[in-house]
Amino acid sequence: MSASRAIEPASRWISCPECEASCREVPLPPRAILRCKRCGVVVRKSARPTSLQPAWALATAGLFLVVLANVNPILTFDVVGNTQPNLIVTGVVELARQGYWPVAALVFFAGIAGPALYLAAVWYVVSACCLTRRWPQLPRVLKAAEILESWNLVPVYALATVVAVVKLEMLGTVAWQHGALWLVALSLCAFLTGQLFDHRMVEERLEKLT
Amino acid sequence: MSPSDRPRYQLACALVAAGIILYIPANVVPVMTMTVVGQVEPLTVLGGVQELYDSGLAPMAGIVFLASIVVPFCKLAALSWLLLMQGSTAWQRQRAAVRRIVHLVGCWSMVDVFLLSVLAAVGQLGVLASVRAEPGALFFAAVLVCTLFASESYKPRMIWQTKESLPT
Strand A173-176 to strand A75-79: parallel, antiparallel, or no bridges (unpaired)? Predict the structure, then answer.
């Protein structure tokens, strides 16, 4: 045991995140990438101590934007003087009232709860990494963030809103409200957080923490 | 396949099969009815695309057509291919790439459900203009949930689990 460690001090076996093949971890020079020999996926990237900070900033901003995008009306619809402001939750409530509660639940989860929980989970884990604090339940929250990633559907919701406005213009007058701006900002934040949140890097940092 | 992954594989198979069956009513049954000053108009998913195209909004119609008809179909086809090829050593890298694309593009099929939600919010304006959800929406949402969970439960490592690679 100690002999093999003496020969290869900085090399160990890690499993590929995609295909779980064993890859030998070697110390990486700056900007280098370690790829899996079997499936070609990136196994390790050389990381600077600050490389999680963009994800931290975006997740923090995203959490504020979730509140703003859900509290402000996104558009108002006007037919012959009857004006009605629309929030994201208005559609959920209306679908549930019409008896289509499974669809309402899906919209609620994918459009409101999913992104909020995803951003909260990312924020919690990345904050712990950046502040080097050993907060409780970190591995579980990281797992939750991984599962919730495919429910982070705000950009899809934003596109659907644009299509809906085009359709509604055939029926009456539609006016964008400032909630729409928050929605656009939120979808950018949510998308970029998803891109910049490096699961493997966080995992590695957490290992060092505990 | 490793024995611990067998239930995952079976779950993915069942969900894809359910998705294929539900795909038919999802596209045949109307998803919503739009009432504009007394004119009642039931719309299927394809009908909604047609209406957008007819009113001169071809790019918008293209997006909705891609997201709500092409993407679910391709997702079901790709997932069935991956599941049928399970255990074979052919095209493993390509299969890994297909799985990654399915995972990436799959979520855009939710556009139609969100669209329905934004339109239904308008339904509160009473007689002048109203949008009501129809049973097709349930089938459509069910197809999406099936494909989402199927692609979630089919892990990429399963592509590489062949008879040769596993000690039995």
Answer: antiparallel
pTM assigned to the model:
0.87
Query: Contact, A18 vs A36, CB < 8 A?
Result: yes
Minimal CA separation from A6 to chain B, in Å: 31
Inter-residue contact B15 to B164 (CB < 8 Å): no
Residues in chain B: 168
Q: Is ipTM strictly over 0.90?
A: no
Please list every residue in chain B whose beta carbon sits closer than 8 Å to the beta carbon of residue A19: 96, 156-157, 159-160
Q: What is the 3-state secondary structure (H, E, C) of chain A?
A: CHHHHHHCCCCEEEECCCCCCEEEECCCCCCCEEECCCCCCEEEECCCCCCCHHHHHHHHHHHHHHHHHHHCCCEEEEECCEEEEECHHHHHHHHHHCCCHHHHHHHHHHHHHHHHHHHHHHHHHHHHHHHCCCCCCHHHHHHHHHHHHHHCCHHHHHHHHHHHHHHHCCCCEEEECHHHHHHHHHHHHHHHHHHHCCHHHHHHHHHHHC
Is the pLDDT assigned to residue A189 strictly greater than 90? yes
- Joined together, the tokens standing for residue B149 give 């969970």
* A103 contacts B113? CB cut-off 8 A: yes
Mean pLDDT by 10 residues, chain B (168 residues): 86 95 93 78 86 85 90 94 88 89 87 90 70 90 93 88 65
Using CB atoms within 10 Å of the CB of residue B103, give its burial: 0 to 12 exposed, 13 to 18 middle, 19+ buried: middle
Closest chain B C-alpha to A25 CA, distance in angstroms: 19
A-chain residues near B110 (CB < 8 A): 110, 153, 156-157, 160
Q: What does the alpha-carbon distance between residue B142 and residue B154 come to, in Å, rounded to a whole number?
A: 18
Using an 8 Å CB-CB cutoff, list chain B residues near A18.
Answer: 96, 156-157
Give me the pLDDT at residue B125, please.
67
